[in-house]
Write a structure and sequence with these properties.
mainly alpha; elongated
């Protein structure tokens, strides 16, 4: 579960950084909701 959260956080940061490079800004008003359930990788 922790690995999944870290990967999601990393992806969000990466996407946000790439969008900033193109002067694209946005606000997400709703928080990220984590659901603790097993997944297959």
């Amino acid at each position: 579960m922790e690995l999944r959260r870290q990967l999601l956080d990393f992806a969000n940061q990466s996407i946000t950084q790439r969008l900033k490079e193109y002067d694209i800004a946005f606000n997400i008003d709703e928080p990220t909701i984590y659901v603790d359930s097993p997944i297959t990788i």
